[in-house]
Amino acid sequence: MAARGPFGSGLLGSRFFWNLLASYAALLLVTGVLVGWQVQSRLEASLLRELEETLRRDCEMLAPLASEALRGDVPASLAAELERLSRATGLRTTFVAADGRVALDSSEDARAMDDHSSRPEIVQARAETFGGARRRSHTVGLDMLYVARRLNEGDSEGDSEGERVLGFVRVALPVSQIEGQLASARRSVVLGTGAGVLLALVLGLVLSQHFVRPIAAMKRTAQDLLAGRYDSRVRVTRRDELGLLGETLNALGAETTRRIAALSQEDAQLRAVLAGMIEGVVAVDEADRVAFMNQAARVLLQVAESAPEGMALWKLAPIRELEGLLGRARTSGAPERSEVELFRGGKELVFQAHASPFQGGGKAGFVLVLHDITELRRLERVRRDFVANVSHELKTPLTSIQGFVETLLSGALEDKQNNVRFLRTIEANVKRLTSLVTDLLSLARIESGALEVESAVVDWRDVLEQVLRLREPALLAKELILEVRGREKPVRVRGDREAMTQVLDNLIDNAVQYTPRLGRVVVSLASRDGQGSIAIADTGIGIPSADLDRIFERFYRVDKARSRAAGGTGLGLSIVKNLVLRMQGEVTVSSVEGRGSTFTVLLPLG
């Protein structure tokens, strides 16, 4: 900010500047008053001494006249001359006899005046030759300055001591005349002192500016640093302690800037790392107020983006298990963990929560790390179900084979009526085992990525013709009505011909298996929105809505008994979904229980 006036708006607003100036002005004022008082006192004393000396000289000059007058009658001419002198100069002259009687006074009638032997100046002169006093006159009623000289009998000249006191000569001036001189002297002292104080005050103002300006600059720099303007620096123009302080402040600003930049970079990196973590991270203070929450935590706890930090965690995410976890960590002072299960929107959500106390920067709190294990728990269930299902699927035909083999070995081999039937049952179970193992191997290859899927342009019509030829006996056996729609135009998509054949074969096989005799199977071909679709609809038993989300899981069957009776392995739809996904496609299902199902496969157009 540009300075305004000779001292700048910054200095005028500086409390330190005004305190320094006020202290300096007060010191100058006190010093000026003391010096003025001392000068005035000394000057006044000097004037009084000079005046007393003058009055003494007057006494010396009047001493011969006073001695003659006190020895005889006072000449009228002398009285008249002293009276004229008093009117002209204001000097009052009094001749006092040794007994205190006033012989002559230039201002009053001596005969009317009282005894002066007790006057202070007379008493002092009787003892010391000269006497002086500043007092109010009882005769004229004015403040007077008196000087008296003792006159001795043998002192004709009035300047040596005799044996007997003849009298006294006294002169006096009104104090008012002295006060005029003193007032003039006081005015000179006041004016001189005032001028000196004013000059010193101006000099002090300049010196205060000289000292306060760099301090004000350092103050502004410190305020800039406090406000976050870390590039602010002091302009150092001097080499004294203030200059050293400015250089130190600049070094502090540079170091602060470097550290703030390093901390900002570390904070940005930490926030970027935390934001990119798939685990949810929440930092809370001692009162469980949220200090930080990354995006993964917001999604996991369903906290809106607009929710402000600083709110209590239990308000943002009212989950009892988290409150209990934080309570245990607060009590133990050590890391704690818990597994939280929630149901949201009809779906299960499971996550592990770890609470660890932390302390830093004089503050304490807790860090919550939330790891979503919903999929892990689902996969564990799928694995357990898979092992159980595989065991069951393998055990059932093996048990049947073992039973019939034992029967044949026990003698039924020679039974012409049953041995062939037993062998055909064994053959059927072997085929079922073969299909199961084949499907398991296919699914394993697909899920592991070992199966290479090509991307070529294939017409769905060609694949459909090939599959229908394979499934025609089954369709005829159940007297099912087959209807193909949209075969007039080619539907060319990008995919793997063998994989497309397997997908379509499984879907048509499902439709045949779960559609009752004399039912209908409709295959529809279409192209829309950059995708080629093939839909297989049937009028079979349908799928309950509760089972639609799991219909593509391995070994999942809606009607397990009927599926096994139909010879299914429970892996067909899982194979379909995985193959379609490998070809960058999508498979969907819609169904109404008791009325049939529709499976639709979408692949990119070629």
Molecular structure report:
- The protein has 606 residues and is an alpha+beta fold.
- It folds into four domains: 227 residues, PAS domain (Beta-Lactamase, 2-Layer Sandwich); 91 residues, Beta-Lactamase (2-Layer Sandwich), CATH 3.30.450; 68 residues, Helix Hairpins (Orthogonal Bundle), CATH 1.10.287.130; 153 residues, Heat Shock Protein 90 (2-Layer Sandwich).
- 52% of the residues lie in helices and 21% in strands.
- The protein is built from 15 helices and 17 strands.
- The two termini are 70 Å apart.
- The N terminus is likely disordered.
Q: How do you describe this structure in short?
A:
With 606 residues, the protein is an alpha+beta fold. The protein has helices at residues 8-12, 15-71, 76-89, 120-128, 175-226, 241-276, 295-301, 313-316, 320-332, 374-409, 419-448, 460-477, 497-513, 560-565, 572-582, and strands at residues 92-97, 102-105, 130-136, 143-152, 165-174, 280-285, 290-293, 336-344, 347-360, 363-372, 456-459, 481-485, 492-495, 520-528, 531-538, 586-592, 596-604.
Write out the CATH superfamily name of the largest domain: PAS domain
**Highest-level CATH class of the largest domain:** Alpha Beta
Task: Say how many strands there are.
Answer: 17
What would you call the structural class? Answer: alpha+beta
The DSSP helix count reads: 15
Question: Could you give the distance between the termini?
Answer: 70 Å
Considering DSSP H and I runs of 4 or more, what fraction of the residues is helical? 40-55%
- How many structural domains are formed by the residues? 4
Task: Give me the Rg, rounded.
Answer: 64 Å
Main sheet: strand order: 2-1-5-4-3
Mean pLDDT: 81
Largest beta sheet, briefly? 5 strands, antiparallel
CATH fold-type name of the largest domain: Beta-Lactamase
Shape: rod-shaped
Question: What share of residues are in beta strands?
Answer: 15-25%
Classify the oligomer.
single chain
Contiguous low-pLDDT stretches (5 residues minimum) are 1-9, 157-162, 561-566
